[in-house]
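fyi for ur records
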Amino acid sequence: MLEDLTTAAPPASWPAAYPQGYAVVDVETTGLARDDRIISAAVYRLDARGEVEDHWYTTVNPERDPGPVWIHGLTSEVLEGSPLFGEVAEEFAARLDGRVLVAHNAVFDWSMIAREYARAGREAPVRRRLCTIALSKELGLPLPNHKLESLAAHFGVVQQRAHHALDDARVLAEAFRPSLWAAARDGVRLPLLECLPLKEWTDSAAAPRIGRQASHGSGGYPSGSWRPSRKRPACPYPNPGRYTADKPLKQGMRVAFSGDTSIDRDLLEDRAVEAGLHVATSLSRLTSLLVTNDPDSGTSKVVKARQFGTPVVDEAAFGQLLRDVEPASEG
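which gave:
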């Protein structure tokens, strides 16, 4: 029963396969593009059963304009005397080391953290991440949307300073604990994803400046568009046009993805390519289908999909469609 999800005690039997510790993270940033910077970070360390061990917070001098001050409240004057990321990298790493990174829209926080460590000539000591949006879906929580405030309200957690990294991390830690207990009680497999080390990345002014008026994913903002680039062979089939509901996908269709996914994105794209689909990195009028778990988000792909009338399905529906992809037309 849904009301049991807010149980006040952990289950007596605990899954042996669950992680031994978590780092609940929130970062505020100058924006969402690949060359944007972290301006504050908070970590709540939790034990294997979600109990708080300690917490840590720092502001960070981004060495550039702080971005949307009206959202995060951190002005250039406030940040001027803050340490550079390289100066807090070691302490930050100590908070993450050996733990699963937990965040709301975790792909955003992870990619921002990974890029900062890459700039500092280091590698973030994180091997797995867990997105609380994905976990809430696994649990079937009756949330009106995927914003942090909705998850907090469901568990009766009171937000004090929205878009302040320390308070957002606290709120998420308090909402994650009962979610973890519910998952453990019901034997739910946690939606853990691998955090692959950066191999190729770009930190240039020419990078796409998507969502410059937002600062973070935890309040329902769109996730960043950055991901390590992968060269794929050209799709050998012609584009048959748009996907039509209640009909199968057809080889050659152009498929774009937006936002976090429970299956590792590269694996999901590999499955699409193996089925004969064209994985597109951007969305245009030629795109056959957009796959997203958050069709109400403001990512550039979702916005363009609305403008172009591009069909949209979620990850689960796409997985079903991949089972029966129609062969390309001959000739």
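DSSP finds ten helices and ten strands in the chain. thats all i got for now
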